[in-house]
Amino acid sequence: MKWFRKKKKREEGSQEPAHEAVGQALEPEDEQQAEHIPELVEPAGEAVLLEAEKEGFFRRLSNRLSNTRKGFVSRVDRLLLGKTQIDEELLEELEEVLITSDIGVQTTMALMEKLREKVERKDLSNPEQLRMALQNEILAFLKVLPGPDRIPQEKPYIIMVVGVNGVGKTTTIGKLGNRFVREGKRVLLIAADTFRSAAVEQLEIWAERIGAEVVRHKGKSDPSAVVYDGIHAARSRGVDVVIIDTAGRIHTKVNLMEELKKIRRTVTRQHPYAPHEILLVLDATTGQNAISQAQLFHEALGITGIALAKLDGTAKGGIVVGICNSLGLPLRYIGLGEEVNDLQEFDADAFVKALF
Ligand SMILES: Nc1nc2c(ncn2[C@@H]2O[C@H](COP(=O)(O)OP(=O)(O)OP(=O)(O)O)[C@@H](O)[C@H]2O)c(=O)[nH]1
Ligand SMILES: [Mg+2]
Q1: What is the distance in A from the centroid of ligand 1 to the CA of 169?
Q2: How far apart are alpha carbons 212 and 179 in whole angstroms?
Q3: Is any atom of ligand 1 closer than 6 Å to the C-beta of 316?
Q4: What pLDDT, on a 0 to 100 scale, did the predictor assign at position 51?
Q5: Atom of ligand 1 nearest to the CA of 343
Q6: Which site from 46, 136, 158, 240 is most exposed, i.e. has the minimal number of CB atoms within 10 Å?
Q7: Which sequence spans correspond to the domains of the chain?
Q8: Do the first three CATH levels of 66-142 and 157-355 match, i.e. the same topology?
Q9: What is the pTM of this model?
Q10: Which CATH architecture does the domain made up of 157-355 adopt?
Q11: Which residue in 277, 271, 251 sits closest to 329, CA to CA?
């Protein structure tokens, strides 16, 4: 998120913010986290603060991945415990552990092929080396996609968030919006999940909590009309980032993908290069199902990035490897809980380190 990393502009002279500072809704744990934000702490050097921020980030990641670790790495460790040599039986058992850890059949096969090659070449002579090689191969799979090119060509930067119902779209929008607000950006959320008034209210609560603006319509209007108004408002107010919340299920005769395509067209008509990001939210607890959802959405809409929610409290974190390996789409964010600071940019090195 380098382009958002720039120093937070001092409030003086900037356009009036919609709300006061972010602070009031933070949980105790979040306050602790807030100490790690460079902009909020005066004297120390930036590098030191970034290290401190990273440490908090890593501890949180490691804690929240504990179930996945139990369900996956601990099983690998138990399998290797007391073994002195690598034989076919051991490799087959390892394969089974990987497949049942939601890494997916296809990705497991690819991983095992790499490991078998190494065993045949006698690069690996004991189970400890096999464990190390597995860790390295997983890291290589996670790093296969290049980092996103996210230099915004224009303002506002528009993110359209999509996904089936209940995966965590609105929550992810709240958390993502919060990251931008804390970086000194003016953020506007558009309530384009118009069928349920509860959905609009949920987004408004998030907006209030993080200090973002929100555009909504009264009643069940056409989602594209709300998007049109929202982007219009964003332009006239000089908003930096717009995030569009969409429905996951359609209760009318319109097909979900058709509605989403219409929203996308509405955005593009106002901004030829937007949406700059079409972010698909997937639910980690659904395991392999998430992969097929991604394929469907990508076919219909052209997804530019993935946010994987609910990675905390599930043993199915292995899905991350499958997502990176089989979709060809960058995994941008991971959701590690329901609170405002529980969204992290996906970092393959940190993820593997936290897992192993
Ligand atoms: N543990 C955990 N819960 C999450 C996470 N993200 C979202 N949730 C929870 O998942 C539930 C559904 O989240 P929403 O954000 O409402 O999902 P949605 O996709 O907007 O749902 P619809 O609007 O109904 O389509 C809520 O109870 C959230 O608190 C996460 O990263 N971890
Ligand atoms: Mg929602």
Answers
A1: 6
A2: 11
A3: no
A4: 66
A5: 31
A6: 46
A7: 66-142, 157-355
A8: no
A9: 0.84
A10: 3-Layer(aba) Sandwich (3.40)
A11: 277
